[in-house]
Amino acid sequence: MSAFLGVVRRDVRLSLRQGGEVGLVLGFFVLTVLLFPFGVGPEPQVLGRIAAGIIWAATLLAAVLDLDRLFAADFADGGLDLIALSPMPLELAVLAKIAAHWLTTGLPMVLISPLLAVFVDLDPAAIPMLMLGLLIGTPALSLLGAVAAALTLGARRAGVLVALIVLPLYLPPLIFATAAVEAVLTGASARSDLLLLGAIALAALALAPWATAAALRQALE
Amino acid sequence: MFTDFALEGDLVGAGLACRRGERIVFAGLDCRLAAGGALMLTGPNGSGKSSLLRLLAGLLAPSAGRLAWGGAPIAEDPAAWRAALHYVGHLDATKPALTPRETLGFWAALRNPATPPAVETALAAFGLAAVADWPCRWLSAGQRRRLALARLVAAPAPVWLLDEPSAALDGEGEARLAAAIAAHRAAGGRVAIATHQPLDVTGADRIALDDYAASPEDALAALW
What is the ipTM of this complex? Predict the structure, then answer.
C-alpha cells in the first residue's frame, strides 16, 4: 500500500512541478467551453439546452490532451523498467499512475465545472448532477485512456493516435452522463443513467489495469 | 550498510537463447552466479550484453533455455525474483524536476517498502551529498549515473545487474563503484556487469557474448 501511495505521490508531485501541466489541461478545458457562448450566441434557451454536452465534450478533449505522457516519460528515461522490476505487481503500479493522472486532470475539471456551467447557462438545479456525473465518469476516462497510452508507447505522434483510439471509447460515459443531466432538467429520474455510468467506471477499473500492464510488458520487451 | 546475502541461493541460466525479431542474438549460453560471485559480460556492440541482462532481469523472455534462482525456476515466482534483484540499465531513470534525495527515496521505497531507505548512506557512497537537493536537471551525465548507481546502496538486494555501470563516470566515480561492488560481494552479494571499460572487479567469471553468437545457418535453422 505504501508503495502504491509512493507512486501516486511522485507522479502528482512531478506534474505539479513540471511547468504547470495541470494548468495546461485545465486552461484547455476552460477555453474549449468558453468557445461555445461565442460560437452559438448567448441565448439562454439554446446554450442551456446543450450545456451538459458542451462541458462533457470539453472534458473528453482535455482528458486526452496529456494521456500520451502518462507512460512515455518513464519509458524514455528507463524508469518504467524499474517500476516493472519492483516487487509491486505492475497492475498495481499502473493503477497508481492512473490515480495520479486523475488527481491532476480529472479532479480539477470536476471542481471547476460548476463555474463553467454558469458560463454556458446550465440550469443551477442540474449542477450537482453534472458534478456527480463528472466525478463518476472522469476516473473511467483516465482508466480507458491508460490502455491506449500503453498501446501506443513508443509510437511516433502517439498523442494523435491515443486520441483516435480513445475518443470512441469515451462515447458511453458521455452518453450516460449527459443523459443524467438531461433527466434532471426534464424532471425524470437519473437513476438508471447514473447506474450505467457507474457500471462503466467499475468495469474500466476492473479491466484497464490488466490490459495496460500487459501492453506495457510488451513495450518493454 | 550491507546485509548478508550468502544464503539466498544461486542464479543459474542454462541453454539461454535470445531472439530479437528474426535475429538470434545469442544461443546456448550457460551461466552461474554464486554467492560473492561476479560475472563480466563482454563482447562487441550488438553482441547481446544488454539483452542478456534484460533477460536475466526478467524484462525479456528467453526464446530457449531456463533461468533459476535459489533452486526454483524464475518463471514460477517472478515476484520473488524481482524482489531479489537490482537492475541498473544504461538509462538513469532520473526526473529533471526531482532532486537526487527524492529520486533515491522513491526508488528505494518502491523496491523495499518495509524498511526505511538508506538514502543518506547511498548519497555519501557515491559522493552526491553536496548536490542532494538540486533538481536533477542541473546534474551532469556522470552525476546522474552516480545517482542511478546509488540506488544499489539505498535499498539492499542480493543480485545486481549492471549495464555499462561506469559509462560517464570519472576515475573517482569508478573507484566508488568498485568499492560498492566489493562490499556487496564481501557480504555474499552477486553482481553481473556488462561493460567495455576495464573495471576493477577481482576474480570475476567472464562471458564473451561473441562466443555464443548464432551462425547464420543456425539462425535459419532456428527459424524453421
Answer: 0.88
